[in-house]
Design goal:
mainly alpha, two-stranded parallel ribbon, binds zinc ion, metal-binding, zinc ion binding
């Protein structure tokens, strides 16, 4: 006999007690009140309830989850995860495996009861970031880089051996780490790292400045010559002045661009 087509023995609503807008119903024949009163409030006899600590609402990121600056930079200005839980970044320097990396000041507000401890504070080091995205205690990184300098080796990232030079076909100068200051926002101090889509510019800041100064001097010579145009201007002179004006406008535009891009430069 095929039961699948048989009508249910009681009202269909009993099968779907949690339909939206409906009150949960009791099993057939049991009054609603009696059903809910008789639910057990404790564990069944013979079972031992295991007491677990309530899960912490604070999301703590440590070295096992984080190796790149880009993974934590987002939390510096907004230290909350997608569920709105506070995010605490708790990283140790991977060179000495000992000192704690300094994070934004809002961190301490998220650690009630863990006020500044002079012993702990002395173990905190400013965060130094490299273009490859790796980060270290700044003192440990300085020691590492100066040991490379003394032995005449190429300065590299201690973790991935990224070479800290501007491209050799350009200026080829040393590429200094950037130190993170918790008082400033990220965009005021750390350029985009390579894993975040950043890049290493051809020229270092000093070379760009030197080139800009040179261009300004040349322009001054052209626009304000020591001798020449007061008494007589030939067509050639006019063309020279015209060319100088165009060059000046172009270089001013380049300088403005440099200022805008300043924070993206390593
Ligand atoms: Zn260290
Ligand atoms: Zn690296
Ligand atoms: Zn340079």
């Amino acid at each position: 006999m095929d039961y699948s087509m048989s009508p249910p023995p009681y009202e269909a609503s009993s099968y779907f007690p949690l339909q939206i807008g409906m009150r949960p119903s009791s099993p057939p024949g049991v009054p609603f009140h009696a059903y809910h009163v008789s639910l057990p409030s404790g564990p069944p006899p013979g079972l031992v309830r295991v007491e677990r600590p309530a899960p912490s609402p604070i999301c703590r990121l440590t070295n096992s989850e984080i190796s790149l600056f880009g993974d934590i930079a987002l939390y510096f200005d907004h230290p909350y995860d997608l569920n709105g839980h506070p995010v605490v970044v708790d990283l140790t320097c991977t060179i000495c495996a000992d000192c704690t990396l300094e994070m934004p000041a809002n961190e301490s507000a998220l650690r009630p009861g863990l006020g500044p401890d002079p012993v702990v504070e002395s173990m905190v080091e400013p965060l130094a970031v490299l273009p490859c995205g790796h980060m270290f205690g700044s003192r440990c990184l300085d020691t590492w880089l100066s040991s490379k300098d003394v032995s005449g080796e190429v300065p590299t990232c201690p973790q991935c051996r990224f070479e800290l030079y501007h491209p050799a076909r350009n200026c080829g100068h040393y590429l200094a780490p950037k130190q993170y200051s918790p008082q400033l926002s990220r965009s005021d101090q750390i350029p985009w790292t390579i894993p975040e889509g950043g890049s290493v510019p051809g020229e270092c800041e000093a070379c760009v400045r030197a080139q800009t100064d040179y261009q300004i001097e040349r322009l001054e010579e052209l626009l304000f010559p020591q001798v020449g145009f007061e008494n007589y201007r030939s067509d050639d002179d006019e063309r020279l002045v015209q060319g100088a004006r165009l060059m000046f406008a172009r270089n001013v535009e380049i300088m403005r661009h440099e200022v805008r891009e300043r924070t993206l430069r390593w």
